[in-house]
Design goal:
By secondary structure, the protein is α/β, with parallel strands linked by helices. It has helices at 7-20, 27-40, 45-48, 55-64, 74-86, 108-119, 131-140, 161-169, 185-201; strands at residues 49-51, 69-71, 92-94, 124-127, 150-153, 175-178. It is built from nine helices and six strands.
């Protein structure tokens, strides 16, 4: 069953298709890249998004099983809440909202994410804002018997952003990663929303 697309979005997708031209993405990868470009009007993301092997399949399988989705901040949560409600209704948790105070030497989002990882280590983790949260998550992966179904690593900014993405790249966890300092909550939300649509509409074609 296909989800309805607003005519303006459909027209925007057509413009993106025309401007991006030939590419080497799989249909599922391109659906994600196109949605990120639509959200940002930035075609550079076509060169910045990285997919690990089986990342999309693992993410879709988890979504279809109604695996919890953990976002780092509320803005990412709000950006995907509508699509989650339209599709599989996965539990949706913003890590920063789960704790009232940070641990010593930690940020509030980092503290909240580790709290969520303790409860739901096999969740889908979506990081669009806080590189400290992504670094903390990556530090736990080598010693965790349960691995996330997918990590979307798209923090934005100047401090610890490149380091957090490099740390994610060094892990074996299924991941969709945005290289460079670019990213942000709209980018992370766009990646997950595209995965939700893929999971809902045509998983047999992936």
């Amino acid at each position: 069953m296909r989800l309805p697309i607003h005519p303006i979005m459909e027209h925007s997708f057509a413009v993106i298709d025309q401007e991006i031209g030939k590419h080497n993405f799989s249909p599922a990868e391109y659906a994600i890249v196109r949605r990120v470009i639509h959200s940002t009007a930035d075609f550079e993301f076509a060169q910045l998004i990285r997919f690990s092997q089986e990342a999309i399949a693992s993410g879709i399988a988890a979504i279809q099983k109604q695996t919890p989705i953990i976002t780092d901040v509320g803005m990412v949560k709000q950006g995907v809440a509508g699509m989650v409600a339209k599709t599989f209704g996965n539990p949706l948790i913003a890590a920063v909202e789960q704790v009232s105070a940070p641990m010593p030497g930690k940020t509030l989002t980092e503290t909240g994410l580790m709290h969520c990882f303790e409860q739901f280590p096999g969740a889908v983790f979506v990081i669009g804002n806080a590189p400290t949260a992504l670094l903390a998550l990556c530090s736990q992966l080598p010693v965790s018997p349960v691995q996330p179904a997918l990590v979307i690593g798209a923090p934005v900014g100047f401090i610890s952003v490149l380091e957090s993405k490099e740390a994610l790249a060094q892990t074996k966890v299924p991941q969709i990663r945005v290289e460079s300092r670019k990213g942000g909550s709209p980018v992370a939300a766009a990646i997950l929303n595209a995965l939700l649509v893929l999971a809902w509409e045509s998983p047999e074609e992936l």
